[in-house]
Amino acid sequence: MKYLLALLLSLGTISLASAQSYKLRGLEIDHPWSRAMPTSSPTGAVYLKLSNKGKVDDKLIAASTPRAQSAELHSHLHDNGVMRMREVTGGVSIAAGKEVGFEPGGYHIMLIGLKQALTVGDRFPLTLKFAKAGAITVEVIVQKDEPGHNH
Question: How far apart are CA 114 and CA 41, in angstroms?
């Protein structure tokens, strides 16, 4: 019984450790993650949720990481029935009291020119720059799949 209790407690600790949240002024950045990619892939993507708990609109204007040559804000668009990826120029707005999800099939931070493969369990820094709140460095966790998916 003691062994089972210790195992359950350790699993709870692991779950809590992988759920990351960061705060910068009125902004909250929740669970930055990236999907594992084959070693041959030159690109990857980072996903997260941005919540603006403040009273002033803000905008994510840039991202950078030592893990890639560059990081760009991207979105997926439907163009005549075809899904296309486009760089977002001018940043992504986060209205006061609202949230914006960066998720597969939507907004994401494209990592271009990966310097190292994205392997399950890896962690790497990502700096997010906001127009008003400034900059914050978060830790991205590389996962097999999107959080909450059990395959």
Answer: 8
Residues 6+ positions from 69 with CB-CB distance below 8 Å: 112, 113, 115
Report the Cα 85 to chain-centroid distance in Å: 17
- Check if the beta carbon of residue 96 is closer than 8 Å to that of residue 55: yes
Query: pTM score, two decimals?
Result: 0.83
Identify the pLDDT of residue 149.
52
Interatomic CA distance for residues 13 and 120, integer angstroms: 19
Paired strand residues for 77: 84
Pick the CATH number of 21-143 from 2.60.40.1890, 3.30.30.10, 3.40.50.2300, 2.60.120.10: 2.60.40.1890
DSSP letter string over 7-53?
A: HHHHHHHHHHHH--EEEETTEEEEEEEEE---TT-SEEEEEEEEEE-
What is the rounded radius of gyration, in angstroms, for the C-alpha atoms of the chain? Answer: 17
